[in-house]
Target: DNA-binding Lrp family transcriptional regulator
Amino acid sequence: MEKLDQIDFKILSYLQEHGRVTNVTLADAVGLSTSPCLSRVKKLETLGYIKSYGARIALEMLGEYVTVFTEIKLTGHRVANFERFLQRARNIREIVECHHVTGGYDYLVKIVARNVSHYHGIMESLLLSDAGIGKFSSYIVLGTPIIREGYPIEELF
Model:
């Protein structure tokens, strides 16, 4: 893994918030001329530091939906148990995040669904798919007072 410098971190940080920025604006924001700035962006893309560019969708404008965090404990803790669960979970598009965690559960899963009934159907199909779920607990999100779209790159590195 190539060592990044502070300018690389500034580029990454700026692109998180302004993905459609022109190279001229980006170069100005990070204190470079356009050619070296573009070279650095291409390098960061090639090395995999920049995974993709995309749009942030205002899901709430499309209609009603519910977000549910679900703690999942598997019946077994062998590699095959984890692989089986992940194989089933990857096929469910409503599962938008899946975190392998410490504590009393194995996974913390974020699910978006049309409503509670839809969420219930998702969990029922997951349970019936022999995913190896022993126990689960659900937490319906009432509101999201803090949401950050990017990472605090300059504070972390």
